[in-house]
Write a structure and sequence with these properties.
By secondary structure, this protein is α+β, with helices and mostly antiparallel strands. It contains 13 helices and 11 strands. Among the domains are: 178-270 and 508-536, Pleckstrin-homology domain (PH domain)/Phosphotyrosine-binding domain (PTB) (PH-domain like, Roll), CATH 2.30.29.30; 325-433. It has helices at residues 2-16, 63-66, 70-85, 93-108, 129-134, 139-151, 158-169, 248-268, 274-372, 378-435, 472-489, 491-504, 515-526; strands at 23-24, 51-52, 178-184, 189-194, 198-202, 212-215, 219-225, 228-233, 241-244, 455-457, 463-466. Strand 8 and strand 9 form a beta hairpin. The protein is rod-shaped and about 170 Å long.
């Protein structure tokens, strides 16, 4: 809710300043712009061009409930993504891969293997350099891992992908935490972290796990005089935590963040104002309208794809029929050629049979002539008998050969009749195929497709504000209930992150781990999470 108002104010300011030649981008944490003053009246370097960064000063506690407008969500998504890539927010490797897949989905839409071919992410900055250097993996291997996750997000819109990105990012330990160097009463150097949930004290070498935390609902009063801050817990038996910071300007910024975050913390647990309720109602109506439009487009796309598939099926059927007709025509031609060849062979066999019959007749005539011829001597008689015997054997062989040739001629005639019958059948099949209608064209037409806040008392020498004790116990119970609900919602996400971590763990280079990586791994082994740190109240 607060982020909605802050972003709206930033956008209105941006529109008012568009006439000036500045490169406008966010409000820095070191020097906030005062809307009651001219831009150039602020204490800043006057070199041109002057670059402004308009950023969310107060991070939302629950992005899904508080980021109402799409433009607010998109700008905040860009801010958080930049903070993660520039390593201002620590992100473990497995979560970095998943976040990169959602960022790619928000930019390119649904994954399409015909469009998003290998190498399409070569120019994209997707992972923190710390993560890339931590594993012995090439750019192609990282792209493959990211693409596998990217393909699973099919069906989400850009806004949904950005929201999933922010829902994962808001669970990171350093999300929304502003760090300040401080010293306690003993002079020990510490870090003070201020975020939407409370105040946290860190060791300078460990920004992930606070040594002690003060949730906003357990703080009774925060005050500072000169450079000394005092945090008074709601439990009056607990010690007052005091610390010093180096600069008065930093002290004012810390106090502003404390007041703003505490005020937003209390407002989130009260009924929304009428303006915010109207904004949320408009956002829900717009979301419902977009969903209806999306379903309509998906239905039209589905009908168009079905019509295209039907057309492709008809075209394939036509091609199949054409192939069958072509094959039948070729078979007919082969049958005609075979029939001609068999007829020619039959004619040759018939001629050979006639020739053999003629030779057999001549041999028989010769045999008769020899018998009639008288041989007077025994030798001549014997020779004649031998010749007769040979002539009889030759005549017998010729008769057998003549009979074989006659049988072969009969077989060839039978083959010729079968070939002509095959030719007749092939012609009838060709006529049957050519008489069929190929397909009925399917016309494609676009029309056819288918209550009370804390009291603050300020003075020149001593500034303080008191939080009332009223309803603090009730707030504590509500927070615990929200934590339980949150843990149930994040169970599936944690399983997905563990699966990604297991896949890339074998390629990890231990010697390149940064101190934050080591701390994150120790916290994971101990079961320490961002939410469990709030139970450590000193």
């Amino acid at each position: 809710m607060a982020s909605v108002l802050a972003s709206k104010m930033g956008l209105n300011s941006l529109r008012r300043k568009q006439a000036k030649t500045f490169s406008v981008t966010v409000v820095t944490m070191d020097a906030d712009l005062e809307f009651s003053c001219e831009v150039l009246d602020h204490d800043m370097p006057k070199e041109e061009p002057i670059v402004f960064h308009f950023l969310a000063k107060f991070y939302p506690e629950n992005v899904e409930d508080e980021l109402v407008q799409d433009i607010t969500q998109h700008l905040f998504f860009l801010q958080v993504k930049t903070s993660i890539l520039e390593e201002e927010i620590y992100c473990p490797p497995e979560a970095s891969v998943l976040l990169a897949s959602y960022a790619i989905h928000a930019k390119y839409g649904d994954y399409d293997p015909n469009v998003h071919k290998p190498g399409f992410l070569s120019q994209e900055e997707l992972l923190p350099k710390r993560v890339i250097n931590l594993y012995q993996m090439t750019a192609e291997m990282w792209e493959e891992r990211i693409t596998v996750c990217y393909a699973e997000h099919r069906g989400r819109t850009r806004d949904e992908a950005e929201m999933e990105y922010l829902k994962i990012a808001q669970d990171l330990e350093m999300y929304g935490v502003n760090y300040f160097s401080i010293r306690n009463k003993k002079g020990t150097s510490l870090l003070l972290g201020v975020d939407a949930l409370g105040l946290h004290i860190y060791d300078p070498s460990n920004k992930l796990t606070p040594k002690i935390s003060f949730p906003w609902n357990e703080i009774r009063n925060i005050s500072y005089s000169d450079k000394e801050f005092a945090i008074k817990p709601l439990d009056k038996r607990a010690d007052v935590f005091k610390f010093n910071s180096s600069k008065l300007r930093v002290n004012k910024l810390i106090l502003q963040l404390c007041i703003g975050n505490h005020d937003l913390f209390m407002r989130r647990r009260r009924v929304d104002s009428l303006e915010v309720q109207q904004m949320k109602m408009q956002a829900r109506e717009e979301k419902a309208r977009k969903q209806m439009e999306r379903r309509r487009l998906e239905r039209e796309k589905q009908l168009r794809e079905e019509a295209e598939r039907a057309r492709d099926d008809l075209e394939r059927r036509l091609i199949q029929l054409q192939d069958e007709a072509h094959m039948a025509n070729e078979a007919l031609l082969r049958s005609e050629e075979t029939a001609d060849l068999l007829a020619e062979k039959a004619q040759i066999a018939e001629e050979e049979a006639k020739l053999l019959a003629q030779k057999a007749a001549e041999a028989e005539q010769e045999m008769r002539r020899i018998k009639v011829t008288a041989i007077r001597t025994e030798e001549e008689k014997r020779l004649m008998e031998q010749k007769m015997l040979e002539a009889e054997m030759l005549a017998l062989k010729m008769a057998e050969e003549s009979e074989r040739r006659a049988n072969e001629a009969d077989q060839l005639k039978q083959d010729l009749q079968e070939a002509r019958e095959s030719e007749r059948k092939a012609k009838s099949k060709l006529l049957e195929i050519t008489s069929k209608s190929p397909y009925s064209p399917v016309p494609l037409s676009a029309n056819a497709l288918p209550p009370d806040g804390p009291n603050f008392n300020f003075s020149m020498e001593n500034l303080s504000f008191d939080f009332k004790d009223t309803d603090m116990k009730r707030l504590s119970m509500e927070i615990e209930k929200e934590k339980v609900e949150y843990m149930e919602k994040s169970k599936h996400l944690q399983e997905q992150l563990n699966e990604l971590k297991t896949e890339i763990e074998s390629l990890k280079l231990k010697e390149r781990e940064t101190p934050l990586d080591i701390l994150h791994n120790e916290n994971t082994e101990k079961g320490t999470s961002k939410q469990s740190n709030f139970k450590k109240v000193g």
